[in-house]
């Protein structure tokens, strides 16, 4: 690791033992006892909810040993009250003048910060006594023991003040504070308006959801009415048929009964012959009726449910997709301006016996970074100084990675062929730890991955698939089965209008619409990469970078030309990431335990 030397009073590896001896080691037992007492006090304060600092605290709650924010102030009582206590105060003292914290012009200036200025915000019983220059953070003894014991540059505040050659410019700081307050007030005004707009949009969407439900109910009512109408028609027809048969049966019974009575009487031969013939005719008609009615012995109405409708409703998980729209990303960088590298620093990220293959990188909270180590089958978390602070082992090699939100990343894991372990691992990165929270199985090889607006885009080497964030298949957007690794890595523009794909088989990139239509292709020898790797990166500011065997190419956003070729000192680059906050370019390599950070300028 290379760094510019910085002077005076730091506790590096050669000095830490001496400095700690002077501070703590001579009283190690006392420190340990004090540490245990402090931990108990800190946990107790957490349970009481009193470890927070507010610019104004509730006077009533403070008397009870509980810290709650004072959102109201009584000018008559000269006391502040929380949301709960002010209700009782207003009931008992209706004539008192109470102002809200929102009324900033009349809000009293608090002395709380003056009292707690020198105390650690995390460990409220401890004073701030040190400065970690690795992280530019004030520390108490507990912070040092818990989180910064491995830091190389920790200095006592008393020594820092003595060694400082620059005087603090109070006037300039006051001016900066005023400017920050003005900007914060402007942002506050905007956010207050946004809260109102958000509520309006919420109520509008809620009404749309209810309308959708009403529409579904209306359609269900229509389907029900149609089905009942058909039922009633068939029922009326069959009922009329059965009633007609019943009537005919009664008629035949009556006639046969009459003929039977006539035959018993003494009649003339002619009359007896006529009666006999009619009996024969009626009996034949009766047999015909009986035969036809026996065929209808099990007459009933049946219903065949509409399985297509039921299956459709069962497959639906919602009445529509809900997305947040915070506005288009605001950047002061033209994505087609050239990124030029300057100073270079190198950092070792090795934690295993085998050489690292860093196949992808992305940003994590608090300026940390997550990297994929293909060879060692793990995901590593780096702090701001690019030291490995945690790692998570995976059952199969990781290929590519993308941010889902500030705390979650999605990682593709896959063998070279279809395998039961192929899929996506969703990881939570928080509090200097990596935790797997979800595993999504895929029925194809998983290579590149990108995320935009609740949609995941995953490549298989020959096709691009779209999935929902919970792993449900949406559609196949693009396919090129002319060879292996023709659809290797994927990236999405910040506005979601363009999808970028790398074709390692033909040394080119393809630009697609969101619907999957090809709008441009760019082929160049600079894109040639002998390794199957996540060789594409689309920055948050829109720049497009493609990794080749010997260099990194910056491509224009529409895929017409290479804007810049960035040469790196080490061979076989494997991955690249542009940190838009620090304006630095990170490069990972094959068979190399180091990553390189380049400072950049944009021209």
Account of the 3D structure:
The protein has 603 residues and is α+β, with helices and mostly antiparallel strands. It folds into three domains: 13-165, no CATH class; 172-296; 339-602, TolB, C-terminal domain (Neuraminidase), CATH 2.120.10. Helices cover 32% and strands 27% of the residues. It has ten helices and 30 strands. The strands form eight sheets. It has a four-stranded antiparallel beta sheet, with no helix packed on it. It has a four-stranded antiparallel beta sheet with strand order 8-9-10-11, with no helix packed on it. α8 packs antiparallel against α9.
Name the CATH homologous superfamily of the largest domain: TolB, C-terminal domain
Beta content comes to 25-35%
Biggest sheet, in brief? 4 strands, antiparallel
Please report the first level of CATH classification, the CATH class of the largest domain. Answer: Mainly Beta
Look at the structure and give the mean pLDDT.
Answer: 82
Q: What strand order characterises the main sheet?
A: 7-30-29-28
| Low-pLDDT residue intervals, each spanning 5 or more residues | 1-51
Shape: elongated
| Helix run count | 10
Could you please say which CATH topology of the largest domain applies here?
Answer: Neuraminidase
């Amino acid at each position: 690791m290379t760094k510019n030397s910085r002077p005076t009073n730091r506790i590096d590896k050669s000095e830490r033992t001496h400095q700690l001896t002077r501070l703590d080691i001579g009283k190690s037992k006392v420190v340990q006892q004090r540490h245990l007492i402090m931990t108990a006090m800190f946990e107790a304060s957490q349970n009481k909810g009193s470890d927070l600092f507010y610019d104004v605290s509730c006077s009533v709650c403070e008397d009870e040993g509980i810290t709650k924010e004072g959102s109201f102030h009584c000018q008559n009582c000269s006391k502040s009250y929380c949301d709960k206590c002010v209700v009782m105060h207003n009931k008992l003292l209706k004539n008192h003048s109470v102002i809200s914290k929102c009324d900033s012009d009349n809000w009293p200036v608090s002395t709380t910060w003056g009292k707690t200025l020198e105390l650690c915000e995390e460990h409220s019983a401890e004073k701030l006594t040190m400065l970690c220059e690795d992280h530019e953070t004030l520390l108490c003894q507990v912070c040092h023991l818990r989180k910064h014991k491995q830091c190389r540059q920790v200095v006592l505040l008393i020594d820092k003040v003595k060694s400082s050659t620059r005087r603090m410019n109070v006037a300039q700081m006051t001016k900066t504070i005023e400017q920050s307050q003005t900007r914060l007030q402007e942002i506050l005004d905007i956010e207050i308006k946004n809260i109102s707009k958000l509520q309006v949009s919420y109520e509008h969407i809620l009404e749309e959801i209810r309308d959708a439900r009403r529409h579904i109910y209306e359609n269900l009512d229509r389907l029900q009415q149609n089905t009942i109408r058909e039922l009633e028609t068939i029922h009326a027809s069959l009922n009329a048929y059965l009633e007609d048969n019943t009537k005919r049966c009664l008629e035949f019974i009556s006639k046969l009964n009459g003929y039977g009575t006539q035959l018993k009487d003494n009649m003339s031969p002619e009359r007896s012959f006529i009666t006999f013939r009619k009996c024969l005719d009626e009996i034949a008609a009766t047999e015909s009726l009986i035969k036809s009615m026996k065929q209808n012995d099990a007459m009933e109405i049946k219903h065949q449910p509409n399985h297509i409708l039921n299956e459709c409703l069962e497959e639906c998980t919602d009445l529509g997709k809900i997305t947040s729209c915070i506005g288009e990303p605001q950047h002061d960088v033209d994505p087609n301006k050239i990124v030029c590298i300057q100073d270079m620093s190198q950092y070792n990220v090795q934690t295993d016996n085998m050489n690292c293959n860093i196949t992808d990188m992305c940003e994590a909270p608090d300026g940390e970074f997550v990297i994929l180590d293909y060879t060692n089958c793990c995901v590593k978390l780096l702090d701001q100084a690019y030291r490995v602070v945690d790692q998570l082992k995976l059952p199969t090699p990781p290929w590519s990675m993308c941010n889902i939100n500030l705390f979650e990343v999605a990682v593709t894991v896959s063998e070279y062929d279809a395998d039961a372990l192929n899929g996506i691992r969703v990881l939570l990165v928080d509090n200097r730890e990596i935790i797997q929270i979800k595993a999504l199985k895929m029925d194809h090889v998983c290579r590149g991955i990108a995320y935009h607006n609740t949609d995941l885009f995953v490549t298989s080497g020959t096709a691009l698939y779209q999935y929902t964030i919970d792993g449900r298949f949406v559609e196949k957007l693009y396919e090129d089965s002319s060879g292996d690794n023709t659809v290797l890595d994927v990236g999405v523009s910040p506005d979601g209008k363009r999808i970028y794909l790398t074709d390692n088989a033909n040394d080119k990139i393809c630009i697609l619409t969101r619907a999957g239509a090809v709008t441009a292709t760019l082929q160049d020898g600079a894109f040639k990469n002998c390794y199957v790797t996540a060789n594409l990166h689309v920055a948050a500011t829109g720049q497009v970078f493609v990794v080749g065997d010997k260099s990194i190419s910056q491509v224009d956003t529409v895929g017409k030309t290479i804007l810049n070729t960035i040469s790196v000192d080490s061979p076989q680059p494997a991955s690249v990431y542009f940190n838009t906050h620090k304006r630095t370019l990170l490069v990972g390599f094959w068979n190399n335990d180091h990553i390189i950070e380049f400072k950049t300028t944009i021209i």
